[in-house]
Amino acid sequence: MLILTCPCCHVTAEETEFHAGGEAHLKRIGPDGAEGEFESYLFMRQNPKGVHLERWRHVYGCGKWFHLARDTATLEVFGAYSAQTTSPPDHIRSAIQEKHPEWQWQGAS
Amino acid sequence: MSETVTALKNAHYDAGIAEVSEIGPLGMITIRGDLDAPFVRKVAKKVTGVERPERGMCNSEGGAGIAWMSPDELLLMCPHAQVPDVLARLHAAFEDTHTLAANVSGARAVFRVDGPHAREVLAKLAPVDLAPEKFTPGMFRRTRVGQVPAAIWLRADGSFQIFCFRSVAQYMFDLLKAAAQPGSEVGYFPPESGVNREKV
Fold it and tell me: What is an annotated GO biological process for this record, any one (chain A) (predicted)?
């Protein structure tokens, strides 16, 4: 069971009050993109065992979307941050690197 | 004008460990916009008589009140008969701004859970820490009750007021009744730190 804190309304609740929205920081492929790129934008997702950046929505609460950094193996939550970002902020990166020094953000995919 | 009817015609249940009643009709108006804008605070105060609440809180006085719903949403409460008047005043005040005021009185059902075990009844149903030192009077929390979205407000008198969609009013009433059925006291919260009063 995950315990998450919504960065918008600052409510701490367990995961049934939220809804997972899949991988974060996807790079959108527009009409000019190649077919293969568009396919991977639509369908190909990372499925790491370990650090993962995700989108979540506080669906039963304030209704806002946000980003979350967590460990899929241990369910440790490194932090939640604004949905209005295109990359994880520094405090999230350092929180992850404290536990996983080798971890590097791979960039929007 | 047509007669206003609440979803369950003010259904009432008092055979269990807490009193459950559908209340209303209650006037409810949603305000969406920049809640920190001075004019929103001023107008909300002017039409209800209470200050705009801080995050996660609800201010009320008499039949009027304001609840904090989300970073850009307030729920304004007033006597049902005053809704058209209050709405007209809000529309006039918000005219040139990017702010919404909409009447949602008919879209919601409102329940009251009262009695010394009211806290326990809600704690059985919602994934919220309802410990007396954590969930204090005046707090307003949007969450899930059973399978439906709802908002829980702990009033100053120790009773809980629950807001949900009108379409799930029957489910909510049945759920509260089941959680309040006779002999279902859990005794998790120490009675002296719970509701500090006798059942009236």
Answer: tetrahydrofolate metabolic process
Where residue B92 sits, what CATH number does that domain have?
3.30.70.1520
Same domain? For B19 and B113 the reply is yes
- Give residue ranges of A with CB < 8 Å to any B CB: 8-11, 13-14, 16-17, 59-64
Chain B positions touching A11 (Cβ under 8 A) are 56, 141
CB < 8 Å to B144, chain A: 16-17, 60
Q: Are residues B19 and B46 in the same domain?
A: no
The number of C-alpha atoms within 13 Å of B167 and in the hemisphere containing its C-beta is: 4
Q: Are residues B98 and B162 in the same domain?
A: no
- Residue-wise pLDDT tens for chain A (109 aa)? 899 999 999 999 999 999 999 999 999 998 899 999 999 999 999 999 999 999 999 999 999 999 999 999 999 999 999 999 999 999 999 999 999 999 999 888 7
Does B128 lie in the same domain as B93?
no
Query: Are residues B56 and A10, on separate chains, in Cβ contact within 8 Å?
Result: yes
* CA A26 to each of CA A23, A49, A57, A92: distance values in angstroms, whole numbers, following the listed order: 7, 19, 16, 18
Domains and CATH numbers, chain A: 3-99 (3.30.2270.10)
